[in-house]
Amino acid sequence: MAQVVLHRSVEHKPGTRGVRVRVRSNMFRLVRDYEMDFYQYDVFVKPGKQEPPAIGRTRAQALLYRLQLDRAEIFVSKGAYDGGRIIYFTQNIPSGTYDLRGEDQKVPQAGAAKLQVRLTQAAKFNSRDVIAWAEAGRQDVINMLQIYLRQLPNIKYTTPAHQRNYRMFYLDKTSIPLGNGLEVWKGVFQSVRPTLQGLAINVDTTHGVMIQGGSLSDVLMARFSLSNARQLDLRENDPLWKQIRQFLRGVIVTWGGATGCKRQMTVAGLVSQAGEFIFERMADTVPEPITIKDYYRLTQSKILRYPHWPGVKNKAGTIVPIELCTIVSGQLYRGKLPEGGQASQAMLNSAKGKPNHRFSEIGGPVLSEILNYNENDLVHSGMRIHPDATPVEARRLQAPRILFQSEARVQSGRWNVARPQLQAFRPATAPLWAVVIFVGDRYESVITRFVQNLVRCLMGLGVRINTTWHTERGTGQNTGQTMERLKKMHGKPSFVLAILPESAAEIKTVVKQWGDMMAGVSTQCCRIDKVAQKAGDNQYCNNVALKINAKLGGINSTVLTPLITEWLHKQPTMIVGADIGHPPPGVRDRPSVSAVVGSMDKHLTTYSYTAKALSPRLEFIDQLNHMLEQLLRDFREKNKCWPQRIIFFRDGMSAGEFEQTARNELKLIQRAFEQIKEIEESKSYPKVTYIVVTKRHHVRFIPESGDTSNVARSGNCLPGLVVDKQVTSPVYVDYFLQSQDALQGTARPSHYTVLCDENRMSADDLQELSYALCHVYASATSSVSIPTPVYFCTHVGAYHFNPHKLRDALSQDDSTTASGDDNDRVNVQLWNEALGERRTALRTKLFFL
C-alpha cells in the first residue's frame, strides 16, 4: 500500500543534469550569536473579575505592549506575543496577575477602567534547542520564531489585512487608485523557513488589492458604477442586492455611537429600508418599539437622509444604516478583478517591476527601514539576520524537444508555429462547422476577414477543414434559440465558432451550455473587440487554431526527452493532476469542486477528466477513489491495459496540510485499485509517486550579477532553472522549478514536494518529467508554470464552479442550502447528482481550453 514517506534530504541525492548556474534567492540566513533561554507563558486577559471581553488580536497586542512599558521594572526584556494565549520572554518573569490601567478606547467600556493580565509559565528551553528543533521542522518552534519576527510589525502595522495574515503587512502610504472603489497597496511578506543550510527568513515584496476606505455609500457607488443616490434604494429581489451583500460580507465598518466614540463591526448581511426597521429599546424598564431613523433622531440628533437605503448588520443582529458607516482602510478585496479591465491593468502595472528592482527593494528599504531587523525582538533574543541574500547553486535543464510534424525551435521557453509553418502532430478534421454571430451587421467584413484567416491557419496546422461554413445570427435575447437552429444543419457540426460582444458573459454561458452539456459539440468563443483588433494577425489566429484542433481531439504537439523515451514509452504510465477549487471568500451557497485529470496516451497529450462537488473548504478529495477509478477505466479502454505507474501531481495544498491530506488521499488511491476487480485479483497495483505542486509561495530567484549566460530578456533566470540544494527543505524531498520566463515582473518558480515515491524516481527524473509536462499545454506556444495536468484541473474546476446555469437550477430547490446566522450548509449530494446528469459529452476532449 502507498504510504507517506518523509525522505530526509540527506538520504536523497540532488540532481546533476543540466548546466550549473549561480542565482540569488530572497532568503536571509538566521544565525545564533549567543545562547539564550526562552520562557513560554500562557496569557489570560480580562477586565476586573468579569468574563473576558471580545478583545481582538490588535487590541490584545496593544494591551500587552503597554503593560510591558508601564511595568518596565518587571519586563526588562520585551515579550513576543501571538495576540492570543501565548507570549515568550527571554527572562524569567514571575507568574501572576498584573493590573493594567489607562485610557484605551478600543477596549469595551466595561473593562476600560481596570484590566488584568494573568501570566502562567508553561515551558522553558534554550536557543540552541530552538534552532535544532526548528531546523528539524518542528512547527510549534517555527511558530515561536515567527512570533518574534513579526512582533515589531504587529505594533507598527494594524490594518485589518495584517490582522488576517500576520506574515504579510501593507503600507498605506503606497496606495494607488484602481477605480471602482478599489486601490492597490504595496506590501511586505516575511516568514521563517527551515532549509538545508539552516534557518532562513523569506522576505518578499507583494501587492494587495484593497477596498478604499471612507464613506460606505461613496465606495458602493464607485464599486458598482452608480450615478445617483436613488440607485442605492434597493430591495432583496433587486439583482444588485446580492452583489452588494457579497461585496460587503466580512468588511469592517465604523459608525458613531451614542456616546460619541467610534464603534466597529464586521458586516454579515444587509437589511432593506434600514431607517424604517423597528426594534425594541428599553424605556424605564419597559420595551418600547422605535424605528432606527427615530432612534438616531432622538438619541443623537441625526436625521437620516436616506431612510429607505439598506443597512448593514453583524452576526449579533446590530443594524446600522449605510449612510452612517465608514469603511475601515486597509481591507483586502477578496473578489475577482474584471479580466482585461482598467483595474486589472492598473494592478499589473503596479506589480511588473524588473526582478533586479524587486531584489533591490528587498535588500534595501524593506530590510532596513520597514522590517528594521536591527531593532527586531528576534535580534535581542541572541539571533541575527544576515543582511545579504543567500547565493544558491542551481542548474538549468535542457528544454524538451517539441514535436509537431517537424520539430519546433524552442528559445527561452517559446516557439512559433507560423515561422516556419508547423503542422500539428495529429491534425483533426472538421467537415461541417458553423459560425454564430451575436453582433451587428457593421462588423460583417471584419468577421469574414477573421474567419478566412482562421481557416488558413487551421489548414496550415494540417486540419482538414471545409472552407465553407454555415452562418447563424442571434442576439443576447435569443441565444438559446439561435444555438438550437444549428440542429437543422445537414449533420452534426464538428465545432461552432461564436462571435460575441465585448461584454457577453451571459451569451457565452448559454453557448457553452448548449455545446458542452447538451449537444456535445466543441465551441470556440471570440470577442468582437479581439476579432476587430486581430483579424489579420496570424499569431492570434494561430492561437485560436491550436485551441480548435485540441478541442476537436487533435494533438498539436508532443514532447520528447530521454526519460519519456526510455521510461514512459516502455511501461504504461498515467500522469494525474488533482486540485480542489474553493468558492470565493464570503460565498456560502456553493460547494468546493475537486477536479482530477489523467493522461490517456504515451505522448502525454490526451486527457480524461472527472469533477465532483465536495463540502466547502474540505482540504482533501473525499471522492478520489471513485474519480480515479473512472480515469483508470478510461485508460484501460483506450490502451487495452491498466497503467503500471501513476505519477500524481497534487495542487492547492498548504504545507501544514501535507501529511494528513496525503495520507487520506493515498488511502483513497489504494481503494480505487481495490474497486477494480481485475486489478484487485491480480494484486499487481500500480506504483504511485505523489507530488505536491505549490504556486502560492514567496521564494524567488534571480541571476547572480555578472552571469549573462543565465539572463532572459526580462531580467529573470532562463526557463528550466531548478534548485534542489541549500534553500530546500530539511524534512521532505523537494525542489523549485522555474519552467517559464515572466513577460512582466519577477518569475515565480513552482515548488514540488515529494511525499510518496514507490517508483523510486531519481531527483533528475522527477525534475525532467516535471519540466517536460510544462511543455504539453495544448493551446500554448510557450512553457507554462506548472505541469499541464495540474493546469487542466484549474480549468476543469473553474468550469464546474459556474456549470452553465447549474447553480440557478439548484437554487430553485429549497434543499440545496440550509441558511443560518453562522454558516450555510451546501447539499453536496444534490450538486453531484446535477453534475452527473449534465456531464459533458466531450469528457475526453479538451473542451475547457
UniProtKB/TrEMBL annotation:
Domain Piwi, first and last residues per copy: 495-792
Domain PAZ: start-end pairs: 215-329
Molecular function as annotated in GO: RNA binding
PANTHER family in the cross-refs: EUKARYOTIC TRANSLATION INITIATION FACTOR 2C
Protein name: Piwi domain-containing protein
